[in-house]
Amino acid sequence: MIAGYLTHHAQALLGSAGRLARAPFATALTVLVIGLALALPLALALFVSNAMGATGGFTGAVDVSVYFKPDIALSRVQQLAQSTRARPGVAAVQVISAAEALQEFRQYSGFGTALQALGSNPLPNILHVRPTADASAPADLAALKHYLGAWPEVDTVQVDAEWVLRFNAILDLLRRVLSIAAILLGAGVLAVVGNTIRLEIQGRRTEIEVIRLVGGSTGFVRRPFLYTGMLYGLAGALLAWALVGTAAAVLRAPVATLARLYGSSYTLVGAGPREVGLVLGAGMLLGWLGAWVAAARHLRGIEPRA
Amino acid sequence: MILFERVTKRYRNGREALRAATFSIDRGEMVFLTGRSGAGKSTVLKLIALLERPTRGTVMVNGHNLGTLKSRHLSAYRRTLGVVFQDHRLLDDRPVFDNVALPLVVAGASQTEMDHRVRAALDQVGLLGMERMLPNELSVGEQQRVGIARAVVAKPSVLIADEPTGNLDPQLALEVMKLFKRFQDVGVTVIVATHDMHVVHEFGQRSIVLADGEVQGSAEAPLPSMTATR
Q: Quick one: CA dihedral A54, A55, A59, A64, positive or negative?
């Protein structure tokens, strides 16, 4: 019994695949539309994940710079650095002495000669405090800034986080755009598959009538259309994967070049097993759902003629 | 057993195709429904096949009250019937084997069972060896016999045929009717709607005469001048 049931499912699946193969042009057009609709959210998802991967979310790029008053001794700065290191939510603390800062400034600013004209070092001792990733939220940074700024030895505390927050806001916006695009394009896939199945139901009206006449249940009549929809979705998803994979392959070298120019060894990452699984699953589910809706709507009115 | 009790069928356009029709058909009986076009013959078959439901009255087929049979039981009920049409209703893009096998596919038969029963049905209608041919490669008579093979392949308890000889010459018509007689002989209830009185008289079965949607009478036909061969 179960073997017979599975055999009929296999027959329905193969029959649906055969029908799609016998109309290659119409099938290709439908698959192309579905493929493009699925490729856009997949590309957006990869863009967001690559941006996150390339920057590491910039969680390590949030620095708090503490500028001490000119008369504060380096030994006192090191004491304060030690107590800062003991604070929870602090990943690293670096002491840059006024002398080191001057040396660095001489080396990279191009004003080395002019600096020699100065009688004394105008630069203060500095602490660079890097919070941990889970303590980089705006509220945590504000608390850290307040803590450091409360020391009487400190002149200024500067949090270099605004641009990171902007970047994260852009990524968050892109994630939302991705969600909206996925919903809208998913609805588009439903409509395309639904309309294609509607036309197929109309074209097979006589067959449906005969099947109903010989006792075919609604489930039996509906089955091949559901497989057709699922195959459309699967083929569209495979096409989307191929399109995005091709685009990633084409862009990999220029992205690597760009990353090198910024001193990074980052390379573009294509769709992994998780993304591929998601897009194939979504494609099949949308195709099946579109076919189900169309079949439920249009098979209802088909009864055998006498 | 099939029982029509004061059955009225009124279509949406207001036409009454049957008016308080009452008759019964025993299990394993072969009956002709006769009458002119529009007499209500096809409506009787539509009601038995549940293509229509009665407006009033009761239709009972093998213990099922068709007026109240739930839609979810419709397909299971139809699997107990074999239906033959004047225009065959074959699927032109499928070979003879697939057309005949359709009721078995729907019923969930195994491939082995399908092979066996389709060949047996084709053998009964004299078309064994034509399994791979397409319907449009066959003559009208052969197409009609494919339709009959499809109707009987799942061993229905009731076989209904609407003008099955309408497109056939007298010789072929006789052959087709002989086939129906053979199915009756093995216990199938056979109901044939026809206005071909020559066929009715040749086979000498009971006929239910309809006129303007009313049952005019039920009569045993004269003894056949020719006995159906087996």
A: positive
pLDDT digits (tens, 9 = 90+) for A121-159: 888 999 999 888 788 777 888 888 899 999 999 999 988
Stated as kind and residue range, the H or E segment containing A48 is: helix A24-55
DSSP B228: P
Chain mean pLDDT for chain B: 88
* φ, ψ (nearest 5 deg) of residue B184: -60, -40
| Separation of alpha carbons B22 and B36, rounded Å | 18
- The shares of helix, strand and coil residues in chain B, as percent rounded to the nearest 5, are 35, 25, 40
C-alpha B102/C-alpha B104 separation (Å) is 5
Query: A306 in contact with B at a CB cutoff of 8 Å?
Result: yes
Query: Which one-letter DSSP state was computed for residue B39?
Result: S
Distances (CA, A) of B224 to A212, B169, B198, B201: 37, 19, 10, 6
Provide the pLDDT for residue A114: 72
In this predicted structure, what is the pLDDT of residue A1? 61
* Residue B72: predicted pLDDT: 87
Residues of B in contact with A5 (CB under 8 A): 108
pTM equals 0.74
Q: Compute CA distances B202 → B206, B211, B221, whole Å.
A: 12, 22, 9
Short-list B48, B50, B41, B31, CA closest to B163: B41
Task: Determine the Cα angle at B150 with ends B146 and B122, to 5°.
Answer: 55
Q: Give the distance from residue A286's alpha carbon to the nearest chain B alpha carbon, in angstroms.
A: 27
Measured CA angle at A238 (ends A232, A239), to 5 deg: 90
């029982």: which residue's tokens? B3
Asked whether A57 and A132 are in contact (CB, 8 A), the reply is: no
Contact residues for B195 (Cβ-Cβ < 8 A; gap 6+)? B34, B35, B36, B37, B41, B163
Label residue B156 by pLDDT band (50, 70, 90): very high
Contact A214 B51 (CB under 8 A): no
Q: Please tell me which residue, B174 or A22, carries the higher pLDDT value.
A: A22
**pLDDT confidence tier of residue A61, bands split at 50, 70 and 90:** low
CB contacts, 8 Å: A214 with chain B: 78-79, 83, 102-103, 106, 150, 154
Closest CA to B119 of B130, B106, B108, B134: B130
Amino acid at A300: R
Residue numbers of B between 190 and 219 with CB closer than 8 Å to A: none
**Chain B residue closest to A218 (CA)?**
B75
Residues 6+ apart with CB under 8 A from A252: A267, A268, A270
